[in-house]
Write a structure and sequence with these properties.
Elements lengths: L2 H16 L16 E4 L3 E7 L2 E3 L6 E4 L1 H20 L9 E7 L4 H8 L30 E5 L10 H8 L1
Parallel strand pairs: 2-5, 2-6
Antiparallel strand pairs: 1-5, 3-4
Length: about 170
């Protein structure tokens, strides 16, 4: 395996294992499991079924190596190719925020709400940190486009409900 590819794969698994989420400077914030964030001037979203459905009460199950991981790797590869070509987007880089749907339409819809967080005004008037100060909330980046999801059963409400969020 190419050393650069090995490093990229190691970084990918580290990002995936650590997750990311909105950051509260003085108060602890919940992390967002099953996600990847790559910084860039323009952020693209990705929703992929990286895991299968989990058992009752657990959203995610086993890793789907074929259909889930490959789709996500295709997006990461495309971003890498575009960002490494100085003629395609000069002086600009594409970033990504990739979320796992866990092969569940309802979980995918829940995950997709993170893409619209940048458009929502947060009311922190009644939230206080342990030192009495109001929290400082880092505003999430605005996602300009989303790749995926491709639901297994393709329910009729899916395109309308997901598109209306964005």
């Amino acid at each position: 395996m190419d050393p650069d590819a090995s490093l990229l794969l190691l970084c990918f698994w580290t990002w995936w294992a650590l997750g990311f989420g909105p950051s509260w400077v003085c108060c602890p914030a919940p992390t967002q499991p099953h996600s990847i964030k790559i910084e860039g001037d323009i952020t693209l979203g990705g929703l992929f079924p990286v895991h299968s459905r989990g058992p009752a009460g657990v959203p995610c199950g086993e890793v789907k190596k074929e259909k889930g991981i490959h789709r996500m790797e295709a997006m990461l590869y495309a971003l890498d190719q575009i960002n490494s070509d100085p003629y395609l987007l000069p002086n600009m880089t594409l970033g990504a925020r990739i979320l796992d749907t866990c092969s569940r339409d309802t979980y995918a819809l829940e995950q997709s709400l993170t893409f619209v967080q940048a458009l929502i005004q947060k009311d922190t008037s009644d939230v206080r940190c342990s030192n009495g100060e109001p929290p400082i909330i880092a505003k999430p980046e605005r996602v300009v486009a989303v790749m995926g999801p491709r639901p297994v059963l393709s329910p009729s409400w899916w395109p309308t409900s997901f598109a209306s969020l964005l």
